[in-house]
Amino acid sequence: MPEMPQMKNRRRWDIFCTVVDNFGDIGVTWRLARQLVAEHAMDVRLWVDDLRAFERLCPAIDLNLSQQWQEGVEVRHWTADWQPTDAADVVIAAFACQLPSAYMEAMAAREKPPLWLNLDYLSAEDWVVGCHGLPSVKYKNVQKFFFFPGFQKGTGGLLRESGLLERRRQFQQDPEAQRAFLQGLGIDRAQGAQLISLFAYENAGLASWLDVLAADSVPTHLLVPEGRILGDVERWLGVEGLAAGAVHVRESLTVQVLPFVRQDQYDHLLWCCDFNAVRGEDSFVRAQWAGRPLLWHIYRQDEDIHLDKLEAFLTLYTKGLSAPAREAISGLWQEWNAGHDMSDHWATTRKHWPELQKHAEAWCLEQALQADLAAALVQFYLNWI
């Protein structure tokens, strides 16, 4: 296997990822690893315990290799059979995953201890600002620090590659580029149809939303990437075995199942759509960079603590909206995450569509004023040394 060229004074980073919920964890760490290499000239090893889940995002992955290079990142299969390895200059435990005990010993054995960071889950809750950057636990002589992505000053910001918004604007202003991209996925958008993407967890409220879309006077083309929501779509359609390429039409609604695509293609899909229903963390952030109205299906947690996170984000996101528009979009999100009937809330939301469209772009530009997550991590390291 060819070695990647080493640059003088390049810093080594190790990012550890355990795949908990299919694609969210690996989606975030894969984007981060590539950006650290491409934009900050870091040497990055990405340790992943589930290469099969990773393969959906990076089809070039060889499931049989314990070590390989992908887009400048050294990808290592993190197995129970841990082999001794030197610790890096910066060690990121993504989403509080537990590092191998032998690796922690290697961190402590370094002449200069590494910077050890817990890259936490994204949250808009107020307490995040106060905890960001604070010391956490200590292992021997190695101090761990909290690092929180976020939407407010005083947090680590959001993942955003250099030039992302400029590329998005150019694409959204180029109908031919959009048409060519959609055709590449087998999508033939009907004239005058609104385009909606749907990537979500199982949701009992879906049927009521699809009922409204089917009965609407405005045609809708619903694009559903393969995932956990497909079972609910099948029940509504009365079919079994939906797979990529399937197209079903009911009154004004066309439902089309898409293959699971690479991250850059998913970005373009979001940019094409008029409205994006997304889930988890990675697709949630990417939908915000699309500058279009969105609907977030937050990951469910015990004792419904995820609803606190939902309300915290809505409080931030809806600032600047008129009271009716704020109530409409907040109600839509709340009912969706409760699995309730969506019909009235969707109708109310559509009444405020122009305002919500302008607000989505304004929110995107406001978030882009902050340093992106990768840059914030690098700056934290530079300040630390």
Write the SSE topology.
Layout: E1 12-17, H1 24-40, E2 43-48, H2 51-57, E3 67-70, E4 73-77, E5 90-94, H3 101-109, E6 115-119, H4 127-131, E7 135-139, E8 142-147, H5 164-172, H6 175-184, E9 194-198, H7 206-215, E10 220-225, H8 230-237, E11 247-250, E12 253-258, H9 263-272, E13 275-279, H10 282-289, E14 294-297, H11 306-317, H12 323-338, H13 343-351, H14 353-367, H15 373-384
Parallel strand pairs: 1-2, 1-5, 2-4, 5-6, 6-8, 9-10, 9-13, 10-12, 13-14
Antiparallel strand pairs: 3-4, 7-8, 11-12
Kindly describe this structure:
Residues 1-8 have low confidence and may be disordered. The strands form two sheets. This protein has an eight-stranded mixed beta sheet. It has a six-stranded mixed beta sheet with strand order 11-12-10-9-13-14. The protein folds into two domains: 12-159 and 371-384, Rossmann fold (3-Layer(aba) Sandwich), CATH 3.40.50; 164-367, Rossmann fold (3-Layer(aba) Sandwich), CATH 3.40.50. The chain has 15 helices and 14 strands. It is α/β, with parallel strands linked by helices and 385 residues long.
Fraction of helical residues: 40-55%
Query: What is the rounded distance between the termini?
Result: 33 Å
Poorly predicted ranges (pLDDT <50, ≥5 residues)?
1-8
Overall 3D form: globular
CATH class of the largest domain: Alpha Beta
Q: What's the average pLDDT?
A: 94
The helix-strand sequence is: EHEHEEEHEHEEHHEHEHEEHEHEHHHHH
The CATH homologous superfamily of the largest domain is named Glycogen Phosphorylase B
